[in-house]
Amino acid sequence: MPDNSSRSPEAEDFYRIKRLPPYVFAEVNAIKAAARSRGDDIIDLGMGNPDLPPPAHVIEKLAEVARDPTAHGYSASKGIKGLRKAQAAYYERRFGVELDIEREIIVTLGSKEGLANLAQAITAPGDVVLAPSPSYPIHAFGFIIAGAAIRHLPVLPGYDFMTELAKAVRYSVPKPTALVLGYPSNPTAQTVDLDFYGQVIEFCRYHKIWVLSDLAYSEIYFDGKPPPSVLQVPHAKDIAIEFTSMSKTYSMAGWRVGFAVGNPQLIAALTRVKSYLDYGAFTPIQAAATAALNGPQGCIAEARKVYHTRRDVMIDAFGRAGWDIPVPDASMFAWTPLPPALKHLGAMEFAKQLVINAQVAVAPGTGFGEHGEGYVRIALVENEHRLRQAARNIRRYFQSVGVNVADSVE
Fold this sequence. Notes:
Helix content: 40-55%
Radius of gyration: 22 Å
Number of helices: 13
Oligomer: single chain
Structural class: alpha/beta
Mean pLDDT: 93
Strand order of the largest sheet: 2-8-7-6-5-3-4
Number of domains: 2
């Protein structure tokens, strides 16, 4: 018999790794990489990676501060004071919410890191946390890594959120400690109004449940009112914290700058954990982020207009290719049911076939939770010409498998 006594440990041997399923997007990414290695021109609508440049004055500020020889040491884990003041000013003018820059704001390395580290700060093994499904993976997996049990709340048509929330609290043992929200939603593009947040806050205050809101897409909206903040609800700061990001608002995804604001107890817990883990973002990046928040804001409206135009082009071109896309009200995504004739493939196989046969990459809905089956997420991260080319490629693929399509795609 083989002697396994000297076998090296595998990654799957570790406790927290065992709690994580295989990364759903890895399979599609591998097929996409193989196609590109063969020379295929893949139109990548899978990852929500902004293709627009950051504002010029922000890049100039980064370069200016980076030239300062004193700016290259350790920064402040909590964020430099000027950046926290700029975020407070943003919340005041955008939402009418006042924030204490010392007790109610912390700078994070993007909203994703902030959520994950807050999970580490407030979670005990066996805690129950409520998370939407489908939703951005860190909403659930940040807490799974921290040792929590996740109870998913379906957030698709046909489900009433408050009914599902009440049911989850009634039947969870132990009682849930926290509820994660994310609107405008990644991936579904759903939006909510202030009345919705009011109901959630009233319910969660009564049941002593923390509310963790992800507002990363606050400035990408199209046909309706600007998305509200949960902190606009009276007494929300008693139980709520909210995460925002520079990534999509200012096309600064790779800079890794975000914020957590709200309940002082949660901010203090996050601050304590982060003080052990990092020294904050590079100071010139924080200075440039300050310039973005304090400087001219026309760049936001310009980016919103670009995404709006791309949305309309995609809806029209994909529709004429035989694939009807529900119109998203916000975010940079369209949450899209599989074409009825190809629904039997399932989200993962459909996404793979789209790369292989149409040279178009999308994100399978199953990567966002069990309720994502039957859907894919399409990101508006290519220009109008590329979106129309994607539609032509998809039309040819659909024709090859017998799906009825329109007469032409311009």
